[in-house]
Amino acid sequence: MGEILVGACSWTDRQLVGSGWYPRGRRDAEGRLRHYASRLPVVEVDSGYYALPSRRNSELWVERTPDGFRFDVKAFSLLTGHPTRAEALPADLRRAGLGPVRRGQAAPALLDEVWGRFAEAVEPLRKAGRLGTVLFQFPPWFAPGAASEEALEACVRRTAGWPLAVEFRHPGWWEAGRADATWELLSGLGATAVGTDMVQGLPGSLPPIAPVTRPALAVVRFHGRSPDWGRGGKEDRFRHDYAPAELAAWVPRLRRAARQAEELHVLFNNCCADVAVRAAETMSALLTARRR
Fold it and tell me: For the residues of 39-62, what is the DSSP string, one character each?
């Protein structure tokens, strides 16, 4: 049985900070992370999607967390073909005028520079053994097909030596008749397939599965079950407080995945107030109770 690490997809979310989960005296940048790491063993750096992470922050994160703690870093939006605002780029790259950023497209010089800076930023985590994975969450229009497979292969070449995880948002990747091919593709690339829990019955709904394509690591992300998924703001899309019964139903599936992987990361992305960290603590307790 592999080790199961349960956590949330942010420790700096404004609503979490204001929820009271962090005690008095632990609400500054250092105090928040130290407190989080004393309660949960893994966290996703969701902010890496919105802006390039910095090497200095990674060094501080290493200093402020114990051995065995894991950071799963979400890849910058430009690296997964998402629309990227110019304001999200470092000021010197904006001034350099390396080319416009459009949906799924960026000038080669800009893309090369961003890849290099992202790699430099996460290196302290990798070197210290704190980097759980780099999560590449591809957009809903990243559909199965030759072009997408070529893009995945290019991503694997760029990330040689990194632990790589892939989450698809297009439901075609895991639909009946295609799932086995997707499993084989990611397994052949040495990439971790990310399983998901989300609301069902919508056009973009992904099935509740926990595929294991890489023996070293499996990942499952819980997005909540809001019926407003796919529309509205963040609070609308991720507003869901998991009931204990909803979490308990996942325990057998997670334990099966853990039997196939050295490490399993279970991450809660329903980041509204403190519901994600509370769900993580509840899930951790459920998994521990079932081991006894």
Answer: H-SEEEEGGGGTS---HHHHHHHH
pTM above 0.90, yes or no: yes
Rounded to a whole number of angstroms, the CA Rg of the chain reads: 18
Model pLDDT for residues 38-52, shown as the tens digit of each residue: 999 999 999 999 999
CA angle 68, 194, 116 (to 5 degrees): 70
pLDDT tens profile 241-262: 899 999 999 999 999 999 999 9
Contacts of 171 (CB under 8 A, 6+ apart): 203, 204, 205, 206, 207
Spatial contact of 264 and 219, defined as CB atoms under 8 Å apart = yes
Mean pLDDT for the stretch of residues 108-118: 91
Query: How far from 256 is each of 63, 104, 137, 192, CA to CA, in Å?
Result: 34, 36, 24, 16
The tokens for 113 are: 């520079």
